[in-house]
Description:
- Helix content is about 25%, strand content about 20%.
- It is of the alpha/beta class.
- A hairpin with a 4-residue loop joins strand 5 and strand 6 (about 60-65).
Amino acid sequence: MSDGYAGDKSPGDTFATLKADADAVLVDVRTVPEWQFVGVPDLADLAKEALFVEWQAYPEMKINAGFVEAVTAKGVTPDQTVFLLCRSGVRSKAAAKALTAAGFKACYNILEGFEGNADADGHRGKVGGWKHAGLPWRQQ
């Protein structure tokens, strides 16, 4: 246990575990506009689908008080390995802590998130993250 959750995993390690563990799930905790306009992880080759539950609701960005219940409603159980993804790894870490506090046993933050950190020009998707790692994604 690392800082209130199972720990951090790189995008590549996450994808490898999702491939190897049929019960492992990926929960994308970004906002609806991010899913719609930036893209989403594509797990079709793994015969899986990413799950989508906002940690903070756009545009107010208030924490979703029903987050744990929404994840559970998607069929995720406390015994599954859960990987949480946001833009850069901050919201997903908070979401991993919340699920762990609610009794989930193996919640991991995906390092660098979907887009990674901004580069020298302020652009994301070029330094770290799911997209930069060349992992499958699609426009929603």
